[in-house]
Amino acid sequence: MPDLDQTLLALADPARRGVIDLLREKPRRASEIAHALRMSRPAMSRHLRVLRQTGLVVQDGIDADARVRMYRLRGEPIEHLRGWLEEVEGFWTAQLASFKTRVEGSNPKPNREARAVAASRAPKSTRPASRLQKP
Amino acid sequence: MPDLDQTLLALADPARRGVIDLLREKPRRASEIAHALRMSRPAMSRHLRVLRQTGLVVQDGIDADARVRMYRLRGEPIEHLRGWLEEVEGFWTAQLASFKTRVEGSNPKPNREARAVAASRAPKSTRPASRLQKP
DNA sequence: ACAATAGTTAACCTTATCGTTCATCATTAT
DNA sequence: ATAATGATGAACGATAAGGTTAACTATTGT
Asked: CA at B72, C1' at C3: how many angstroms apart?
């Protein structure tokens, strides 16, 4: 069972995403990845450990030489994350629904998405209108 | 243009995902969110700043009281991230293709996914077979 | 004018992260 | 046996994240 926190933390590092991009093409050895990303092997080893612990990567396939660890990508955590993202992406329709039930009793004809934006009505105050947004 | 690094880093915090989950339903005020997630307002303010900077959230809609900042969700960074994820998810077919072109000249009948796994052949060594995996 | 409210910023502390170098373990080659 | 290789582990330093309290700005109410 993939953990969103772990998965996101693992992916929130360019080096580890680099690993993922490399493994996307084909399984590779640890040192090969370290070299490709210009990083010491210990550093890469730790990145790989993180990726392993989150299940984004597995090691297997002893390459005829038991010294080398072949790493390959594993899809499950990524699919799980995508599932969560799609769920979140439903926010727009969710807000539409919420808006609907909040405004009307059960009126069957409220389907313009512009309606949701209309929720930001102008302040009734006639004052200087405050700046909000100082870059 | 949403930045993957920023987006992932922003999402890789349970508090900020909590904010997202709250805003999924409807726009809310900063203090409301802070209270819902049992966190001091300054802490939440910084989380909101992070979310703002990554474009995951925008503030608008002065709620008749110019003191309150209404926060609402913004879909673009999430969609961008989902796009990347789907791209990564293509790794399996990519590896199939790579395997195909590596093994055969152009033989038109190589469509068992088990083939890709078959790449992990047994070591020719007859030794104790090394442990690999010490939990 | 004064106090109260919503929100942010600043200063501080604690903890975690990332990379490096050095040491260690396991496996293969001479 | 000894050396060389692939990978990991441990200790160190630098940097950034996340929380708290206190101070500050802006707006509203009395």
From this structure: 31
Count of pairs with CB atoms under 8 A, one residue in A, one in B: 118
Instruction: Tell me how far apart the terminal alpha carbons of chain B are, to the nearest angstrom.
Output: 42
Chain B hits for A60, Cβ within 8 Å: 120
CA dihedral in degrees (B70, A111, A90, B7; nearest 10)? -50
Which residues of A fall within a CB distance of 8 Å from B70? 120
Q: Is the model's pLDDT at B131 over the cut of 90?
A: no
Q: What is the average pLDDT across A38-52?
A: 97
In this structure, what token pair is assigned to residue B106? 């152009």
Query: SS3 for A29?
Result: strand
**How many other C-beta atoms lie within 10 A of the C-beta of residue A26?**
17
Q: What angle do CA B40, B43, B44 make, to 5 degrees?
A: 85
- Give helix B91-103 / helix A14-25 axis angle, nearest 10°: 40
CA dist list (Å): B112 to A61, B48, B118, B128 = 19, 48, 10, 32
Q: Which residues contact B40 (CB under 8 A, 6 or more apart)?
A: B34
Tokens at B9, concatenated: 């880093």
Distance of C1' in C17 from CA in A108, Å? 53
Rounded to an integer, what distance in angstroms lies between the CA atom of residue A135 and that of residue B63?
A: 21
Residues 62-91 of A with CB under 7 A from strand C: 65-67
Please report the pLDDT score of residue B110 as a whole number: 41
- Flag whether pLDDT at B126 surpasses 90: no
